[in-house]
């Protein structure tokens, strides 16, 4: 069954073989960027708190 699906000559299976890994990489980059953004915002808040205590 899977051989017949992959042997299909419409081109959509090749698109999935390329688009699948690209989608996974984009998804992982989005997760990393979100985590880095959350970490930076926490660091910025800590810096603002320290500045308010000094001043």
Describe this structure in words.
This protein is 87% helix and 0% strand. It is an all-alpha fold and 55 residues long. The protein starts with a helix and ends with a helix.
* Major pleated sheet: none
Total number of beta strands:
0
Helicity range = over 70%
Order of helices and strands: HH
Strand content bin: under 5%
Structural shape = rod-shaped
Radius of gyration: 23 Å
* Count of helical regions: 2
- Quick check: average pLDDT? 78
Distance from N terminus to C terminus (CA atoms, Å) equals 71 Å
Structural class: mainly alpha
Low-confidence stretches: none
Labels describing this entry:
55 residues; mainly alpha; 87% helix; rod-shaped
Topology:
Blueprint: H1 2-6, H2 12-54
Short description:
The chain is 87% helix and 0% strand.
